[in-house]
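Same chain as my last thread, 348 residues:
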Amino acid sequence: MNDFIKQEYFGNTVEHYLIALGIMVIGVLFVRLIRKGILNQIKKWTSRTETKLDDYIVRGIEKFGLPILNFFIIYSGVKYLDFPENTDKMIGNVAVIVITYYAIQMLSSFVRLTLEALTSQQEGGQEKLKQLNGIMLILNGVLWGLGLLFIFDNLGYDVTAIVAGLGIGGIAIALAAQSILGDLFNYFVIFFDRPFEIGDFITIDDKKGVVEYIGIKTTRVKSIGGEQLVFSNSDLTNSRIHNFKRMERRRVVFSVGVIYQTPTHLLEKIPSILKNIVESNPAVTFDRAHFQKLGSFSLDYEVVYFIENSDYVQYMDIQQKMNLEIFKTFASEGIEFAYPTQTLFVSK
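reply #2:
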């Protein structure tokens, strides 16, 4: 038996092969013990906590930490053996590639889970989660670029020359695609600064509609007429945007005009009539009613009130009810509405 384990194959004895195999088997069994015993207990404990951060950490350890640990165990067993220089170098290169791959995957997953946790806590966070794909596409591109540079550096390539080449190429690309890069950076501005979100009703110049989609280069808005409006992100961030979704209360101003022949005692009574009509609606807050000006063909009164709601349909229902009540009350008081008229004086 002693002679058998001392026999040498490919530069290693049977004893060395058995020790390497033992390292791998014991290590893998130890990792399975951690997964089945300790990690499952930790998962039960974190599921009872209020924060989600510990759940993400445990999920990351299970998804990436344990595979990396298994690889280190196998790598340690293989490194226990003696191999030719070329084979040993190839094993080292494989180790660098595998470790870099899992490290990038783990970092990418951690960044995404962190952004999801922060975004979901915001108002309208579930809609905003759809925008994370664009951000993660860019971040993954950066991470994989850095990972490839790290791999090339460990494989013996001249990374300085590669970076210099990429720098010159990057300048050329940036000059050729200034508008695209501008839209890309403005996408980050929209995502983090949140001037509007999916589902918001916005106005840009004379265009109005509901935000349907926010992309890396363009944002799409469903107009009132039903057609889809497509804006570049740069146009939106450079424009004055009215976001009606953020309106907590609506200020309403409307005017009423009566004829010049209206008696003075009725002119004095009209502001209180308008005030009573507005205050009769419990959904609004009266602000003021004044005899505003002497118009070209009418005596104009201005009324201001607030609706404690941003719903446009509710506003129109309330205004319609007030208009009908004003019409009925003026008719009963003998007050006539003004309309454009002309008086001709004919000389005899």
